[in-house]
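In response to reviewer comment 3 from the previous cycle, which asked for concrete evidence that the modeling workflow produces usable outputs, we include below a single protein chain processed end to end. The sequence was submitted unchanged, and the resulting structure tokens are shown without manual editing.
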Amino acid sequence: MLALFRAVEGVAFEHAGHDPGAAGGSALPTSTPASAAATQVGSGVEVISGTAAADVFKLGNAGLVYYKDAYGATGKDGNYALIKDFKKGDKISLVCDEMGEYSILACDMGETAGICSCIYYNNDDQTGAHIDLIACVTGPDALSLDLMDASTFIWDINPTAIDSIGAATNDILFLSSTSAPFGGAGSDVLHGSQGEDRFVGVDPASSFPGRGEVDVFIGLAGADTFVLGGLGKVYYVDPLGQSARSYAAIQDFEKGDKIVLVCDEMGEYTLQNCTVGLSEARCIYYDRDGIAGVGLTDELIAIVQGPDALKLDLMDASTFIWDIPGSAIDATGSATNDVLIGTDAEDKLIGKGGSDVIIGAMGNDQLIGVDPSDQSPGRGEVDVLIGAPGADTFVLGAAGLTYYLDPIGRSSNSYAAIQDFEGGDKISLTGNKTEYVLQDCLIGVSSATCIYFNRDGAPGVGSQDDLIAIVQGPASQKLDLNSNSFIWDSANGASAFKSDFVHFNRLFDPISGLHLFSANSSELSALTARGYKNEGISWSLFAPSGGEINGLSEVHRLYNPATSEHLFTISDGEVSAAKSSGWNYEGIIGRAYALGQGGENSVKRYFNASTGEHLYTSSATEAASLPGLGYSYEGNAWYL
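The workflow returned the following structure tokens.
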């Protein structure tokens, strides 16, 4: 019997008498066939012609394999579908249960169809006499059919029927909500379910998991996890050197999916765009040589394709999970730029100096990007803090010191970039909530919350307020200083900005044409009352108390009663000489670094021979203009 059917454009075809299901290109049947209780569905040869749209040809649904004979009819007779006009973009939906698998062979169906791809169902899980022809496929792309191609085959999985632990040979495994996740040794194909699946294509207990294997991972829908390492072992690495025969082929990486990598002291990873056939992909290499980029000895461990593959970024905590051997990571960085990665335990990671990347990995971790013992912790640093899974604490201040402040003024090059703030995470600040301001901000096209130190004490973000953190992640838009997302270290009272830095305003006397620098509020009030114009904060010093320790020198102020000029200097010799010349010593006003002792920003000193005035500025723009106004450069007065 030969029955003819033509698919309606944009509609997935099922056997006659069944619900036509979803529209062309949809992933799975949307309803159960009316005769789902039957043991045999489809009789004779049914001809199905495709349309110009992307069609879905369904050869099974709800646990039933269509066109399956009772037991083993083979060859050109029996029951099967003749699919015509199969083209790129079309899909075939198959059912998988514990009794059967499939195979595809090129065959000659003679006058019925000519040369085509025949899809066979294995009735007794053995090769040979009992394989059952269920479909012949013709058309432009028929002869290129491959059961491993996730872009062509859709698998309708019986959720309780499949054992997903492979053998030491090449397996095709279908994950379900109850299945185990291991492919075992050999080159395997692991098909996911519609839920959240975890893919492990190797035997984790072997000495070199994944060596000589090419495992195909097809996640389908759901937030899936693809495991490329565990128990301290990087999967798909060949101990003899670079190999193109060992890797995982992740075929449909989507938003919400994750990749697990192992990090130890012997290796890191590199991502590189690559091409698979005509499709773009992202290749993951194990970095053997420790040199940036993909070197001759670096080893390919995964090829990632899919809608979000090209967006992969090793710094993206929403994508990469780091499986860390407990003894592999030193939790304290150096004065330079470091990458620190925690273990699965509860870690305390301290980046110290430099711009660091700190990844907490598993566990409830404490992440500190700065050197807490520094005079200005975090100044000039941009530290990336990634908590990863667990209830993590991001420390932005402690013991009265607010981190990432610049004593000179507002800066955009000192802050913590918290990338994955989630429910249960905390941010630790010193002082009290009136000293901080939250503001919505954008990083690229992603929403974030920016945390500012409130220098001026006014509501909102002012021109002098200092950015100390940019917070991204699922819970970053819900931040509230009054919520339990913040921990307050208030034992030492106000934060370091008010207790450890002295900020000097510059005032201008319109009568004499001279400038005066002062941090004394009473003096500032008196001078402005006399007509001096306050030009705002010009520069800052460390508080005068504490002495000359850690490379700091005391800054002295002197006054010349004959000329009404002031002199600021860290030179003891200059202080003595000025006193001998009639200058009055007014005391220590703060502390700063001398040349070579520390600090990154200088306060420059200029002298105007016509007026006898010394002018001090931290502004590079103003410094460039002063020679044209009659000022001579005398060098850097000090550093901060």
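The mean pLDDT is 76. We consider this sufficient to address the reviewer's concern, and the full set will be provided in the supplementary archive.
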